[in-house]
């Protein structure tokens, strides 16, 4: 799958050594990239490292599709796996950047995923944390 994904983003030109596969394909809109990345998270055939990379890249995007994809994966991973933590880190980064959170999901957070989200918000946007969060 990684080869397919990199091929999708790098057609027509080689990427430079300091350029990621996503950055090398300027013809793909940010919305299309977000859809593809969420699709990787939802793909049961995708490898764990591919899902982890997709979760990491998703921090650079925002919107309901991205947030729901990250939240869905965090829940599916029972808030505890490395993938759940990576998704939570990206979700916290999105919330800090956009200045709003999903209060219902924030109340649902637990374990390592909660630690990731609250840690990111505590550093980047402490005003978004619920009172008495720490």
Describe the protein in words.
With 134 residues, this protein is an all-alpha fold. The protein has one domain. Helix content is 61%, strand content 0%. The protein has helices spanning 2-10, 30-42, 48-57, 64-76, 82-98, 103-108, 111-124.
How does the overall form come out from the CA principal axes? globular
Proportion of residues in β-strands:
under 5%
State the order of secondary-structure elements, H for helix, E for strand: HHHHHHH
Number of strands: 0
Helix content: 55-70%
Q: Rg to the nearest angstrom?
A: 15 Å
Low-confidence stretches: none
| Assembly state | single chain
Instruction: Report the sheet with the most strands, covering strand number, pairing sense and barrel closure.
Output: none
The number of helices is 7
Distance between the termini: 40 Å
State mean pLDDT (0 to 100 scale). 88
Number of domains: 1
Question: What secondary-structure arrangement, pairings included, does this model have?
Answer:
Elements: H1 2-10, H2 30-42, H3 48-57, H4 64-76, H5 82-98, H6 103-108, H7 111-124
Helix pairs in contact: 2-3, 2-4, 3-5, 4-5, 5-7
Briefly say what this structure is.
By secondary structure, the protein is mostly helical. The chain is 61% helix and 0% strand. It has seven helices and no strands.
């Amino acid at each position: 799958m990684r080869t397919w994904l990199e091929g999708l983003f790098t057609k027509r030109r080689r990427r430079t050594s300091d350029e990621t596969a996503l950055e090398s394909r300027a013809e793909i809109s940010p919305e299309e990239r977000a859809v593809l990345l969420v699709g990787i998270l939802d793909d049961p055939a995708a490898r764990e490292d591919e899902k982890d990379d997709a979760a990491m890249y998703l921090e650079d995007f925002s919107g309901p599709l991205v947030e729901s994809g990250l939240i869905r994966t965090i829940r599916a991973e029972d808030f505890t796996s490395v993938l759940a933590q990576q998704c939570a880190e990206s979700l916290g980064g999105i919330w800090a950047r956009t200045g709003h959170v999903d209060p219902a999901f924030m109340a649902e957070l637990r374990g390592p995923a909660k630690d990731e989200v609250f840690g990111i918000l505590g550093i980047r946007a402490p005003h978004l944390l619920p009172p008495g969060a720490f």
